[in-house]
Design the sequence.
């Protein structure tokens, strides 16, 4: 932009537009304006606090749901292990019984008593010892 050229000896004045004078603010109007500003500031702060606590509440709820899920999974695993433990204890008790042990060995491994002949039929429950 170029500066306006003035003839020598002439002064160019830029005229400023005078500010429009507004009506003087009354104290009641000023108080309303201040109260309105404070109201919106407090509302914004309250909204931020509510958002923060809402987020924390959501995180706590999600964490609790995760813990409950883990707890139910652990309980089901515990029940399965307890059942297995009970079954194994029963098997140990049965294997300590000589009559059951003899019956079990005869069925599973085709052992025979002296003078006894064992016939293996196709529908037998016992497993075949010769299979590997």
Sequence:
């Amino acid at each position: 932009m170029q500066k306006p050229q003035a003839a020598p000896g002439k002064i160019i004045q830029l005229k400023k537009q005078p500010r429009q004078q507004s009506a003087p603010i009354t104290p009641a109007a000023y108080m309303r304006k201040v109260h309105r500003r404070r109201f919106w500031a407090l509302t914004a702060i309250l909204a931020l606090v509510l958002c923060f606590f809402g987020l924390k509440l959501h995180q706590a709820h999600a964490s609790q749901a995760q813990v409950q899920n883990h707890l139910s999974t652990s309980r089901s695993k515990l029940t399965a292990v307890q059942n297995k433990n009970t079954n194994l204890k029963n098997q140990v008790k049965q294997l300590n019984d000589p009559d059951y042990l003899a019956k079990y060995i005869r069925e599973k491994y085709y052992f025979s008593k002296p003078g006894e002949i064992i016939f293996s039929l196709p529908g037998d429950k016992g497993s075949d010892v010769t299979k590997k």
In short: The first helix runs from residue 27 to 96. The chain has a mean pLDDT of 85.
